[in-house]
Amino acid sequence: MTIIGDEPEGAIPLDPNELDGLRHTHVTTRDELNQLEQANIGSGLDWLGRTRESEILTEAFMRKLHEKLFGDVWRWAGSYRTTLKNIGVDPSQIGERTRLLLDDAKYWSEHGTYSPLEAAARFHHQLVEIHCFPNGNGRHARIAADLYLKKYFSHPPIDWLGGEDLTTAGPRRKAYIAALRAADDLNYEPLLRFVGAMN
Ligand SMILES: Nc1ncnc2c1ncn2[C@@H]1O[C@H](COP(=O)(O)OP(=O)(O)OP(=O)(O)O)[C@@H](O)[C@H]1O
Ligand SMILES: [Mg+2]
Predict the structure, then answer these.
(1) Measured between alpha carbons, how far is residue 48 from residues 11, 70, 119, 141, 183 in Å?
(2) Residue 199 within a domain
(3) In 28, 131, 137, 186, which residue has its Cα 20 to 30 A from 176's Cα atom?
(4) Ligand 2 (single-atom ion) residues, CB below 5 Å
(5) What are phi and psi of 8, to 5 degrees?
(6) How many angstroms separate the alpha carbon of residue 111 from the centre of ligand 2?
(7) 50 Cα–ligand 1 center, Å
Protein backbone atom coordinates (compact mmCIF):
# COMPACT_ATOMS: atom_id res chain seq x y z
CA MET A 1 0.00 0.00 0.00
CA THR A 2 1.14 3.52 -0.69
CA ILE A 3 1.58 5.88 2.26
CA ILE A 4 0.63 9.48 1.63
CA GLY A 5 1.16 12.32 4.11
CA ASP A 6 -1.20 14.86 5.66
CA GLU A 7 -4.06 16.36 3.69
CA PRO A 8 -4.79 20.12 3.70
CA GLU A 9 -7.91 21.31 5.51
CA GLY A 10 -11.13 20.20 3.88
CA ALA A 11 -9.42 17.53 1.80
CA ILE A 12 -11.04 14.14 2.04
CA PRO A 13 -8.75 11.19 2.91
CA LEU A 14 -8.62 8.31 0.48
CA ASP A 15 -9.78 4.81 1.27
CA PRO A 16 -6.94 2.20 1.07
CA ASN A 17 -8.76 0.51 -1.83
CA GLU A 18 -8.80 3.80 -3.69
CA LEU A 19 -5.10 4.38 -3.00
CA ASP A 20 -4.51 1.03 -4.65
CA GLY A 21 -5.72 2.62 -7.87
CA LEU A 22 -2.55 4.71 -8.03
CA ARG A 23 -0.81 3.99 -11.33
CA HIS A 24 2.62 5.05 -10.00
CA THR A 25 3.72 2.58 -7.34
CA HIS A 26 6.88 4.52 -6.50
CA VAL A 27 4.94 7.48 -5.06
CA THR A 28 5.36 7.81 -1.29
CA THR A 29 4.78 11.46 -0.45
CA ARG A 30 1.94 13.92 -0.86
CA ASP A 31 4.32 16.24 -2.75
CA GLU A 32 5.14 13.62 -5.38
CA LEU A 33 1.46 12.82 -5.78
CA ASN A 34 0.59 16.51 -6.11
CA GLN A 35 3.16 16.92 -8.86
CA LEU A 36 1.87 13.94 -10.81
CA GLU A 37 -1.70 15.14 -10.45
CA GLN A 38 -0.73 18.66 -11.45
CA ALA A 39 0.91 17.38 -14.65
CA ASN A 40 -2.14 15.26 -15.40
CA ILE A 41 -4.46 18.23 -14.87
CA GLY A 42 -2.29 20.20 -17.31
CA SER A 43 -2.77 17.60 -20.03
CA GLY A 44 -6.46 17.33 -19.11
CA LEU A 45 -6.86 21.08 -19.61
CA ASP A 46 -5.08 20.80 -22.97
CA TRP A 47 -7.63 18.15 -23.94
CA LEU A 48 -10.42 20.44 -22.75
CA GLY A 49 -9.09 23.22 -24.96
CA ARG A 50 -9.16 20.92 -27.99
CA THR A 51 -12.41 19.04 -27.44
CA ARG A 52 -15.33 19.81 -29.71
CA GLU A 53 -17.92 18.58 -27.25
CA SER A 54 -20.71 21.14 -27.21
CA GLU A 55 -22.85 19.72 -24.37
CA ILE A 56 -20.96 19.75 -21.11
CA LEU A 57 -23.87 19.40 -18.67
CA THR A 58 -24.14 15.63 -18.96
CA GLU A 59 -22.98 12.87 -16.64
CA ALA A 60 -20.89 11.40 -19.45
CA PHE A 61 -19.03 14.66 -19.97
CA MET A 62 -18.49 15.25 -16.24
CA ARG A 63 -17.00 11.77 -15.91
CA LYS A 64 -14.89 12.14 -19.01
CA LEU A 65 -13.52 15.42 -17.73
CA HIS A 66 -12.53 13.77 -14.45
CA GLU A 67 -10.89 10.94 -16.37
CA LYS A 68 -8.88 13.36 -18.51
CA LEU A 69 -7.77 15.37 -15.46
CA PHE A 70 -6.80 12.40 -13.26
CA GLY A 71 -6.68 9.25 -15.41
CA ASP A 72 -2.88 9.15 -15.82
CA VAL A 73 -2.55 8.98 -12.04
CA TRP A 74 -5.62 7.06 -10.81
CA ARG A 75 -7.17 3.96 -12.34
CA TRP A 76 -10.61 4.87 -11.01
CA ALA A 77 -10.61 8.37 -12.53
CA GLY A 78 -13.93 9.05 -14.23
CA SER A 79 -15.72 6.35 -12.20
CA TYR A 80 -18.13 7.30 -9.48
CA ARG A 81 -17.18 6.77 -5.85
CA THR A 82 -18.35 3.46 -4.35
CA THR A 83 -17.35 4.08 -0.72
CA LEU A 84 -18.85 6.36 1.93
CA LYS A 85 -16.93 9.52 2.84
CA ASN A 86 -17.41 12.12 5.53
CA ILE A 87 -18.63 14.38 2.70
CA GLY A 88 -20.95 13.48 -0.10
CA VAL A 89 -24.18 11.64 -0.75
CA ASP A 90 -24.55 7.89 -0.41
CA PRO A 91 -22.73 6.29 -3.38
CA SER A 92 -26.02 4.81 -4.66
CA GLN A 93 -27.39 8.38 -5.05
CA ILE A 94 -24.52 9.91 -7.02
CA GLY A 95 -25.91 9.36 -10.53
CA GLU A 96 -29.38 10.65 -9.78
CA ARG A 97 -28.20 13.65 -7.77
CA THR A 98 -25.72 14.58 -10.48
CA ARG A 99 -28.39 14.39 -13.20
CA LEU A 100 -30.71 16.60 -11.16
CA LEU A 101 -27.95 19.15 -10.60
CA LEU A 102 -26.97 19.23 -14.29
CA ASP A 103 -30.63 19.78 -15.22
CA ASP A 104 -30.93 22.53 -12.61
CA ALA A 105 -27.81 24.23 -13.91
CA LYS A 106 -29.25 24.20 -17.43
CA TYR A 107 -32.53 25.62 -16.15
CA TRP A 108 -30.74 28.43 -14.26
CA SER A 109 -29.02 29.58 -17.41
CA GLU A 110 -32.13 29.33 -19.59
CA HIS A 111 -34.29 31.25 -17.10
CA GLY A 112 -31.73 33.72 -15.74
CA THR A 113 -32.47 32.43 -12.23
CA TYR A 114 -29.13 33.71 -10.91
CA SER A 115 -26.32 35.93 -12.10
CA PRO A 116 -23.64 33.93 -13.95
CA LEU A 117 -21.27 33.91 -10.96
CA GLU A 118 -23.99 32.89 -8.53
CA ALA A 119 -25.13 30.09 -10.84
CA ALA A 120 -21.53 28.86 -11.11
CA ALA A 121 -21.00 29.09 -7.34
CA ARG A 122 -24.15 27.07 -6.66
CA PHE A 123 -23.24 24.55 -9.35
CA HIS A 124 -19.73 24.18 -7.89
CA HIS A 125 -20.93 23.78 -4.32
CA GLN A 126 -23.58 21.20 -5.15
CA LEU A 127 -21.16 19.20 -7.27
CA VAL A 128 -18.59 18.98 -4.45
CA GLU A 129 -21.39 18.31 -1.97
CA ILE A 130 -22.42 15.26 -4.02
CA HIS A 131 -18.73 14.30 -4.18
CA CYS A 132 -18.94 12.11 -7.28
CA PHE A 133 -15.41 10.71 -7.27
CA PRO A 134 -13.03 9.15 -4.71
CA ASN A 135 -10.67 12.13 -5.06
CA GLY A 136 -10.14 15.22 -7.20
CA ASN A 137 -13.67 16.51 -6.62
CA GLY A 138 -12.60 20.04 -5.70
CA ARG A 139 -10.32 20.52 -8.68
CA HIS A 140 -12.76 18.86 -11.09
CA ALA A 141 -15.69 20.93 -9.83
CA ARG A 142 -13.72 24.20 -10.02
CA ILE A 143 -12.86 23.47 -13.65
CA ALA A 144 -16.44 22.35 -14.33
CA ALA A 145 -17.83 25.59 -12.84
CA ASP A 146 -15.50 27.67 -15.02
CA LEU A 147 -16.56 25.67 -18.06
CA TYR A 148 -20.22 26.22 -17.19
CA LEU A 149 -19.55 29.97 -16.98
CA LYS A 150 -17.86 29.94 -20.37
CA LYS A 151 -20.29 27.72 -22.28
CA TYR A 152 -23.57 28.86 -20.77
CA PHE A 153 -22.88 32.50 -19.94
CA SER A 154 -19.85 33.50 -22.07
CA HIS A 155 -18.43 34.66 -18.74
CA PRO A 156 -14.76 34.63 -17.68
CA PRO A 157 -13.65 32.03 -15.11
CA ILE A 158 -13.79 32.46 -11.33
CA ASP A 159 -10.59 33.72 -9.71
CA TRP A 160 -10.38 30.71 -7.38
CA LEU A 161 -6.78 31.30 -6.37
CA GLY A 162 -6.82 35.04 -5.75
CA GLY A 163 -3.04 34.93 -6.16
CA GLU A 164 -2.66 32.06 -3.67
CA ASP A 165 -2.33 28.29 -3.78
CA LEU A 166 -5.71 26.80 -3.04
CA THR A 167 -4.49 23.22 -2.76
CA THR A 168 -2.36 23.88 0.34
CA ALA A 169 -3.35 25.24 3.74
CA GLY A 170 -3.55 29.04 3.81
CA PRO A 171 -6.09 31.84 4.27
CA ARG A 172 -7.60 31.45 0.81
CA ARG A 173 -8.12 27.72 1.35
CA LYS A 174 -9.61 28.42 4.77
CA ALA A 175 -12.05 30.95 3.33
CA TYR A 176 -12.97 28.56 0.51
CA ILE A 177 -13.72 25.63 2.84
CA ALA A 178 -15.58 27.87 5.31
CA ALA A 179 -17.69 29.22 2.43
CA LEU A 180 -18.56 25.69 1.28
CA ARG A 181 -19.51 24.73 4.83
CA ALA A 182 -21.81 27.74 5.09
CA ALA A 183 -23.35 26.75 1.75
CA ASP A 184 -23.95 23.24 3.18
CA ASP A 185 -26.21 25.05 5.65
CA LEU A 186 -27.84 26.93 2.75
CA ASN A 187 -26.03 30.19 3.52
CA TYR A 188 -24.48 31.08 0.14
CA GLU A 189 -23.28 34.54 1.09
CA PRO A 190 -19.66 33.63 1.97
CA LEU A 191 -19.32 31.63 -1.25
CA LEU A 192 -20.80 34.47 -3.31
CA ARG A 193 -18.23 36.81 -1.78
CA PHE A 194 -15.49 34.27 -2.41
CA VAL A 195 -16.27 34.01 -6.15
CA GLY A 196 -16.71 37.78 -6.48
CA ALA A 197 -20.47 37.73 -7.02
CA MET A 198 -20.96 39.98 -3.98
CA ASN A 199 -18.88 42.67 -2.29
N1 LIG B 1 -18.11 21.05 3.81
C2 LIG B 1 -17.94 20.89 2.50
N3 LIG B 1 -19.01 20.98 1.68
C4 LIG B 1 -18.88 20.83 0.36
N5 LIG B 1 -17.70 20.59 -0.23
C6 LIG B 1 -16.62 20.49 0.52
C7 LIG B 1 -16.66 20.64 1.91
N8 LIG B 1 -15.41 20.49 2.40
C9 LIG B 1 -14.60 20.27 1.35
N10 LIG B 1 -15.32 20.27 0.21
C11 LIG B 1 -14.83 20.09 -1.17
O12 LIG B 1 -14.16 18.88 -1.26
C13 LIG B 1 -12.89 19.10 -1.88
C14 LIG B 1 -11.93 18.04 -1.38
O15 LIG B 1 -12.33 16.82 -1.97
P16 LIG B 1 -11.32 15.99 -2.89
O17 LIG B 1 -10.15 15.62 -2.06
O18 LIG B 1 -12.07 14.92 -3.58
O19 LIG B 1 -10.93 17.07 -3.98
P20 LIG B 1 -9.49 17.50 -4.47
O21 LIG B 1 -9.60 18.13 -5.82
O22 LIG B 1 -8.56 16.33 -4.33
O23 LIG B 1 -9.17 18.58 -3.39
P24 LIG B 1 -8.34 19.91 -3.41
O25 LIG B 1 -9.31 21.01 -3.27
O26 LIG B 1 -7.49 19.73 -2.20
O27 LIG B 1 -7.56 20.00 -4.67
C28 LIG B 1 -12.52 20.51 -1.50
O29 LIG B 1 -11.66 21.11 -2.45
C30 LIG B 1 -13.87 21.19 -1.58
O31 LIG B 1 -14.19 21.54 -2.92
MG1 LIG C 1 -8.08 15.36 -2.56
Answers:
(1) 25, 13, 21, 14, 28
(2) no
(3) 28
(4) 11, 135
(5) -70, 165
(6) 34
(7) 27
CATH code: domain of residue 43: 1.10.3290.10
One pLDDT digit (tens) per residue for the chain, 199 residues: 456 667 777 777 777 778 889 999 888 888 889 899 999 999 999 999 999 988 999 999 999 999 999 999 999 999 999 999 999 999 999 999 999 999 999 999 999 999 999 999 999 999 999 999 999 999 999 999 999 999 999 999 999 998 887 877 789 999 999 999 999 999 999 999 999 999 8
User: What distance in angstroms lies between residue 9's CA and the mean position of ligand 1's atoms?
Assistant: 9
Residue whose Cα lies nearest atom 14 of ligand 1: it is 11
Q: Determine contact, residues 40/70, Cβ cutoff 8 Å.
A: yes
Q: How far is the CA of 136 from the centre of ligand 1 (A)?
A: 8
Ligand 1 pocket by Cβ (under 6 Å): 8, 10-12, 87, 128-129, 135-139, 167, 177, 180-181, 184
Nearest CA among 120, 99, 121, 98 for reference residue 109: 120
Domain that holds residue 150: 16-157
